[in-house]
Amino acid sequence: MQAWLxxxxxxxxxxxxxxxxxxxxxxxxxxxxxKAASLNFPDILIVQNKYQHKPPLPFVPGSEFAGxxxxxxxxxxxxxVGQPVACLAGTGGFGTHTLAPAxxxxxxxxxxxxxxxxxxxxxYATSYHALVDRAQLQAGETVxxxxxxxxxxxxxxxxxxxxxxxxxxxxxxxxxxxxxxSIGADAVINYTQHAAPNALREQIKTLTDAKGPEVVYDPVGxxxxxxxxxxxxxxxxxxxxxxxxxxxxxxPLNLPLLxxxxxxxxxxxxxTRREPRTAVxxxxxxxxxxxxxxxxxxIDRTMPMAELKAAYAHMGSRAVKGKLVLVNG
Length: 329
Prior knowledge:
Layout: E1 2-5, E2 16-19, E3 29-39, H1 41-46, E4 64-72, E5 84-88, E6 97-101, E7 105-107, H2 114-118, H3 121-134, E8 142-145, H4 151-163, E9 166-171, H5 174-182, E10 187-190, H6 197-207, E11 215-218, H7 225-230, E12 237-240, H8 254-259, E13 262-265, H9 268-274, H10 276-291, E14 299-304, H11 308-316, E15 323-327
Parallel strand pairs: 8-9, 8-11, 9-10, 11-12, 12-13, 14-15
Antiparallel strand pairs: 1-2, 3-4, 3-6, 3-15, 4-5, 5-7
Helix pairs in contact: 3-4, 3-10, 9-10
């Protein structure tokens, strides 16, 4: 097998494409022949030693992938050799083969493309967990989605619309805003045109008739967090997804008090460990929605697995709309 190996987590430049022995699955594991693997923001942080999960060295990055079960370890009965699966394992995806815990592999329905499957679990499960489970989003409510043209942002738009909510999508260019409209956003805000905090708040106020959004979905953090929270509706729910902008914002605690609002943490990976039945039920519901055509990953582009460093550079430029997927063969 071949894979991108991280022996020193100082950044993408240290990754090396190497020939490695093909491992054999141990108890509870499967060997997956990787067909596609998506690039997610944590995949950048993990090779910089900045992610909360720090795997032992050396490791192969690539948190989310899809492929075919090539071998099963002792005790694995729920999966079979030759079965197509998607997996969110945290590492291992950026190669031709990888070992994965069988319990984290989701069997794919017939006709589910590997590229879509590799771009599905992290973004859609995170967004469903945020909006449906944590924020208890209701039909008729308004959601403000920050970073709306990215992977989790585009998933959040589709899930909110599937629930029956109104969506205001905020993104950094007219092109990205147009993408958000094309997948269901009811209104858009271009950050670059409303960059000042007061300008952003005025735009949100105008689009919500001064009421504010009931739910804010924030995978960005940074300078937009506080003005977005100041704009939230009474009894609003502010979903903290991540900090793609870099800085982790500090929210004055008088703001939740004044708005009767909630700061809601969203951590899908931890949910899968603590509440595996909830996680399985979420994925089953999302697979049903996909089959019904209610949701579909937005794929920015596919690139050969050997071009991983170029893919990292493209993602680092913040030019990606939806998901970027690496493919083998």
